[in-house]
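U., I forgot to send this yesterday:
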Amino acid sequence: MRISTLFFPGRFLKNPPVFTIYNEGFESNTNGVSTGLIAWSNVAALEEVVVRSNSGSGTREEAALAIHLNDPRLFTQNQPALVRFFYQLAGASGRYRTPGQNPEAVPILLPITALGAHYLQARELMEQLSGQQITAVNRLDL
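Result:
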């Protein structure tokens, strides 16, 4: 049963939902590649984080929800080879590792801006269905 579907502005008619919450789990399509259904029982932790990336114009910061998985292979094994490569690269950099997991255990990062005005509703549903409380690693101004 689909509980909530959230769309990027402007993508409503052209593309699939960005993030869908089901009773059984969730599906994310924020980077254009679907995660497939991730069961709530596979969610180890939920954290609000600030992701920093460097570019030629300086450092950019973006608030995101990091979804840490108990078994990230259930997610990565279904991804295209290029996506798996980037997850391994991110894990090797040490920037996005899931604590206590191997270097390839990179969380799924969901940009908070992708959910727009629906973020607080999605956050509440995710906490309820996963049984996990969302912790804030860095202070976020919502």
